[in-house]
Every structure is written in structure tokens, then in C-alpha cells.
Amino acid sequence: MATLYENTLNFNKKMTVTNTGGNLSTDAGLVLVKEFLYSIGFEQLMEKELHFQDSRLLPTHSNETILEQLIFQLIAGYDTDASANILRHDPFFQQMLEKSTLASQPSLS
Predict the structure, then answer these.
(1) Of 5, 8, 58, 72, which has fewest CB within 10 angstroms of its CB?
(2) Which residues pair with 10 in a beta bridge?
(3) 18 φ, ψ to 5°?
(4) Could you report the per-residue pLDDT of 22-62, keeping only the tens digit for each?
(5) Where are the domains of the chain?
């Protein structure tokens, strides 16, 4: 079977967009959002412009990574914080957000 289209992503060189089947995800459209955010320097904008008053002791996840995870969850239609408990072990979300473990519901609340 011939590949009609294949493209390596800028934000994560290990991921490719292709139509050959293989590992599939119903949330794959988020790759385009992530690629757009990467192209406009969204992570750098967050670090520069967002300032959190954080009273957490020994946080596992930065507020910026929690915000990014929440944005992607909402765009994908996971509109409750409880969805984070399922998505934190989702291979697609982990690879897209480049973290081995994502934030759980208590971290998002």
C-alpha cells in the first residue's frame, strides 16, 4: 500500500502524520493544534506572560504544563477535570504533551 501523505512534526520529531494505518487515535486532530501552538511559540509566551501564585508544596507538574494539558483536553471535548484521570495514561496525550505521566484530576482542580 502506498503512502499518500507523510509529514514529520516540528514539535516532536518522533511523531509523523500519515495515512498508512498503524497506531491510531481519535484525538489525532490535536496534532494540528499542537503544531500551530509550537509555530507561534506558545510555551515561551506562557512562560513570559503567565504568572501564578502557587502555594503547592513539591508540585509534580508545572502550572504551564497543567494549563497546556487542560487546553488540549477541552479542545478534544473532554470537558470535565475527571477526564484527566483516564487521559493521564493515554499514550497519544503523553506523546503529544511530551510527558510520561500527565496531571490527574486533583492537579487540574
Answers:
(1) 58
(2) none
(3) -150, 165
(4) 666 778 788 889 889 999 999 999 989 998 888 888 888 98
(5) 7-20+27-51+61-108
